[in-house]
Amino acid sequence: LTFESERMKKPKINYHVPNLDRALIILELLSKNPAGLNRNEIAAASGCSATMVYRIAMTLTDGGFLFRDETSGRYRLSSKLLDIGVAGADEYSLAHVAWPEMTALRDATNITVMLGCLYNGSEGLLLETAESRSAVRFVVEKGFRTRALHTGAGWKSMLAYLPQPQLETVLAGLSYQALTPNTRTTRQAVLKDLAEIRRRGFAIDRAEITEGVHCVAAPIFDRKGYPAGTLTLSAPASQLPAKDFALRGRQTCEAADRVSAKLGWNKR
């Protein structure tokens, strides 16, 4: 049973558009494969012919919904779909609510501010970025996804406040791969960091993901006290030295708390 036949076995109605359905199948398939797939891989997984996949994929690429790597021939989702999703969300969407606080924090610190959340329970997703105006700055493209939740201030600031059953599931699925010499590579080391985050109220990152880059982050809570997102300051170590972690951490916590309050949360 192919991905396409499973989805298209639903009863058809007169205004059903098969090619549109196939395009949606391809988009959904690529959403589950962030590294991308080539034409033959998409065809095999979707049940569509390679010719049909090519025509649909090129149409989506021309429309800016997909990105095609010319070297590998792999297609990936573009950030345009994320922009559409954010634009279509209601007035209480996380990115919409957080943006004023992100720009205010960016202007107060001249450091890039990033908004992230957990996606599918096992990935980190970068929703929005307010770039520093400094000539030298650290920026990650909006829409970036990662499974390396064991590293980085932002992701760990959320893990620290997850319900215990969900945290156990996340920790069991981590690879603990080392990205730099400072990456935490054991469950015990990560748990120690999470305990420290809860004590301190914010997370710090001394070049755990990228050498030479420091981060501080604070969780954003929804009205039920669940960590719905994270605000992260990220900059070259020269702009965010360890001696400034306490100050920047407090500033980030205050901004995150204001976002949380807009989401209905009223107690840290």
Explained architecture:
- This protein has helices spanning 3-8, 18-31, 39-46, 50-62, 80-88, 94-109, 153-159, 164-172, 187-200, 245-262; strands spanning 66-68, 75-77, 112-119, 123-130, 145-146, 203-206, 213-221, 227-236.
- By secondary structure, the chain is of the alpha+beta class.
- The protein has a 6-stranded antiparallel beta sheet with strand order 5-4-3-8-7-6, with helices on both faces.
- The longest helix has 18 residues, at 245-262.
Kindly list the characteristics that best describe this protein.
single chain; six-stranded antiparallel sheet; 268 residues; alpha+beta; two-stranded antiparallel sheet; 10 helices
* Strand arrangement, major sheet: 5-4-3-8-7-6
Envelope shape: globular
N-to-C terminal Cα separation, in Å?
48 Å
Mean pLDDT: 89
Class derived from helix and strand content: alpha+beta
The parts where pLDDT drops under 50 for at least 5 residues are: none
Q: Using only CA atoms, what is the Rg?
A: 20 Å
Helix content estimate: 40-55%
Helix count, DSSP H or I runs of 4 or more residues: 10
Number of strands: 8
How much of the sequence is in beta strands?
Answer: 15-25%
Helix-strand sequence: HHHHEEHHEEEHHHEEEH
Outline the biggest β-sheet: 6 strands, antiparallel
